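Just curious: can you write whichever protein you like plus the matching structure tokens?

***
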Amino acid sequence: MNDPISLKSLPWLLKILAAIVGAIFALTLSGDIDTQGRIKITPGVIMKFAFSVSISLYGGSAFIEYYELGMYSHMAQGFVMLIFAVFGMLCIGIVYQAVQLMKGKSLAEIVLEVRETFRSIFK
């Protein structure tokens, strides 16, 4: 019974998997994963990934606890965490785009960048 991976840890593994998938979607939305699916690993990308996973785990857990969603299945809770990972980084992406607008990038360039990102997700 003292094995490191038991059936009791399986629900958390599912939630962590959902957080990682959400973080990958968030990296695609932020433009770190390009339209061909390539990624250049930099300290900034690693920080974004870690930040997205932590938003997912902590924010999703707090949301589940606050709204008393613990009675739902682990997959439903994993979906909540996936949504927190994607939309948490999406909010960060919106702030990034606002900063780019203030630096002189045109709105058309930003819209084109966002459109290409969505095309790469649903390709």
